[in-house]
Amino acid sequence: MHFDRTDIDTLEQRYRGNLINCLSGFKPAVLVGTKSTEGQTNLAIFSNLLHLGANPALLGLLVRPAPAGTERHTWENIVATQHFTVNHVNEAIVPQAHQTSARYPRETSEFSATGLTPEWLADYPAPFVAEATVKLGLRLIDQHHYDINHTTLLIGEVQTIHLPSEILREDGSLDLTQEHAVAACGLDSYHTTGTGCRYRYAKPDAKPSKID
Question: Which carries the bigger pLDDT value, residue 92 or residue 212?
C-alpha cells in the first residue's frame, strides 16, 4: 500500500494515530514515577524515551500535548520538583503498566489504582516501581517546547541507577533479555525481546564480526 500526504491528512483520526505511532517501530516501554509538591505520587507509561548522551548521562522524555481542558500530571510534577524516575517495564507487569495510561484524577495515585508498589530508594525524592528491575533516577536540567506540534522534550541527567548485577556485562553493557524487558509499538502493543546478537565495533577495513 501507499499513502501520500493527502491520504495521510484525510485518514480518520484514530486510524491515523495508530498508523503513525507504529512507523517508528519498537521502542522501550518505561514507567515514569513522580511526586507532586503536595506529596501525591504519580505513575505513567511512556515509549518516547531517548538516549541523548553518556557524558554527562542524559535521557530525553518527549511529552505529548494533552487534550484541551485536561491536566498533564507527569509533566507538571517533573517541572515542579525537578526529579523523576524511569523504570523498565517487564513481562510480569505489562497489564498494570498499560493501565497507568488511563486518565485518573490528580488525587488518585496510579500506583494504588494499578496495584504497583512505590519504592523509595537512597532518599531519592521521586518514587521508583518496586516490581521493575532496572530503575533510574533523573534530575530535570532542561526542556524544549516545539511549536510545530506542541510537544515538550524534557532532558534529565541520570543521578542514580539500580539494576540486578546479573544483567551487567563485564564491558558495562546490559543484557536486558534477562530482565524480560518489554518493547512497545504504537499505542497499545507490547512485545517481548529475543536473545538478540552483538557485533564488535565497526571499522572500514574489517568485516562485521559477532561477539560471542
Answer: 92
Confidence (pLDDT) at 12: 95
Distance of CA 210 to the CA centre of its chain: 29
Q: Are 84 and 159 contacting, i.e. CB atoms less than 8 angstroms apart?
A: no
3-state SS string for the chain: CCCCHHHHHHCCHHHHHHHHHHCCCCEECEEEEEECCCCCEEEEEECCEEEEEECCEEEEEEECCCCCCCCCHHHHHHHHHCEEEEEECEHHHHHHHHHCCCCCCCCCCHHHHHCCCEECCCCCCCCEECCCCCEEEEEEEEEEEECCCCEEEEEEEEEEEECCHHHECCCCCECHHHHCEEEEECCCEEEECCCCCEECCCCCCCCCCEEC
Is 137 within 8 Å of 156 (Cβ atoms)?
no
In whole angstroms, give the CA distance from residue 26 to residue 193: 10
Computed over its alpha carbons, how large is the radius of gyration of the chain?
19
Instruction: Please determine, looking at this structure, whether the domain spanning 27-193 carries the CATH number 1.25.40.10.
Output: no
> Which residue has cell 557485533?
199
pLDDT in tens, 27-61: 999 999 999 999 999 999 999 999 999 999 999 99
Residues 100/101/107/109 CA torsion (nearest 10 deg): 10
Cα–Cα–Cα angle for 164, 196, 30, rounded to 5 degrees:
50
Higher pLDDT, 84 or 22: 84
